[in-house]
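quick q for whoever's on today - can somebody do inverse folding on this one?? i tried earlier but teh output was garbage lol. tokens:
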């Protein structure tokens, strides 16, 4: 058993919508003043925002972490047109992600409401073929696809980190990776540590929220992330842990408190 590596950085990030501020500049000011250097932006209409974001990040410590979704269609649809729509829109976002220096675009193969979808076995086989194409395209743009497992209320197909990592293994491309989300893991995983360790080399991004209400970490009684962070340290995780959550209280108060807690 390898010893946990010392000095693994805890890189905390915020989604753009979570960050207080009425403009990108104000949001970046808040982040830097609180020692947060990973900004996660949405993939919707991202192509039109590339120049704005590039200018906003000039002379800043903040970097773009992951790009959150924004694609159209879904990859496990029984309708070939919907699958093509997802591939084409994902490629547009991947180009923008590469231009912004993002390490990946978050992708969900299919949500519960996206029907009709293919049966599981067929869906997985077709998904892997499509991810090989998207992975190659991602690598050519110096970024990656990041598969996100959700909880059963949101998705039936992909719900655990180990399953996402197994898909990455079968695709076998540096352009296809996965992530873990503490909120979804609360409902689907038997153990945070086991989930993150199962991700191993494929784990490329992490979302965090309070464990019961999906608000700022620490706003729910009993919020605990210890075993998850132990695992991230054990696997030498280098990327960002990004807030994807609401807030019960004033963002300018509860977010700094959450950062201190973590």
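ok took a stab at it. sequence:
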């Amino acid at each position: 058993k390898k010893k946990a590596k010392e000095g693994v950085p805890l890189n905390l990030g915020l989604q753009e919508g979570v960050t207080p501020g009425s403009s990108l500049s104000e949001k970046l000011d808040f982040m830097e003043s609180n020692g947060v250097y990973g900004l996660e932006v949405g993939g919707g209409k991202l192509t039109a925002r590339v120049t704005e974001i590039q200018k906003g990040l000039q002379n800043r410590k903040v970097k773009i972490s992951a790009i959150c979704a924004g694609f159209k269609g879904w990859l496990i649809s029984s309708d070939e047109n919907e699958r093509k729509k997802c591939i084409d829109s994902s490629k547009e976002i991947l180009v923008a992600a590469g231009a912004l220096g993002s390490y990946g675009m978050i992708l969900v193969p299919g949500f519960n409401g996206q029907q009709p979808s293919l049966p599981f076995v067929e869906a997985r086989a077709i998904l892997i073929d499509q991810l090989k194409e998207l992975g190659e395209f991602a690598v050519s743009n110096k970024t990656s696809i990041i598969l996100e497992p959700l909880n059963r209320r949101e998705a039936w197909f992909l719900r655990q980190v180990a399953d996402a990592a197994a898909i990455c293994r079968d695709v076998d491309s540096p352009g296809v990776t996965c992530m873990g989300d503490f909120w979804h893991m609360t409902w689907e995983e038997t153990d945070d540590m086991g989930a993150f360790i199962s991700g191993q080399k494929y784990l490329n991004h992490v979302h965090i929220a309070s464990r019961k209400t999906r608000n700022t970490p620490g706003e729910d009684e009993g919020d605990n992330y210890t075993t998850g962070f132990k695992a991230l340290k054990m696997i030498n995780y280098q990327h960002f842990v990004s807030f994807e959550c609401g807030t019960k209280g004033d963002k300018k108060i509860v977010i700094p408190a959450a950062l201190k807690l973590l």
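fwiw The mean pLDDT is 97. also The longest helix spans residues 120-140. so keep that in mind when u check it
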